[in-house]
Amino acid sequence: MIGTGMVRAASLLRKGTVAAKYTAQKIVRDGYQHEQHQVTTSDGYILTMFRIPGSPIIPHRPGKNVAFLQHGLLGSSADYVISGPGRALGYILVDAGYDVWLGNARGNIYSRRHISLNPDASDTKFWNFSWHEIGYFDLPAMIDYVLQHTGQQSLQYAGHSQGTTSFFVMASMRPDYNKKIRSMHALAPVAFMSNLHSPFVRALSPLVDELKWLLDILGVHEFLPSTQMMTLGGKLLCHDQSELQELCANALFLIGGFNSAQLNRTMIPELLKTVPAGASVRQLIHYAQEYNSGHFRQYDHGSKGNKKHYGAKYPPDYPLQLVSAPVALHFSDNDWMAGVKDVHKLHSKLPNSIGLFRVPDPRWNHLDFVWGIDANNLVYNQVIGIMSRYN
Question: What is the DSSP pairing of strand 66-70 with strand 155-160?
Answer without folding.
Answer: parallel
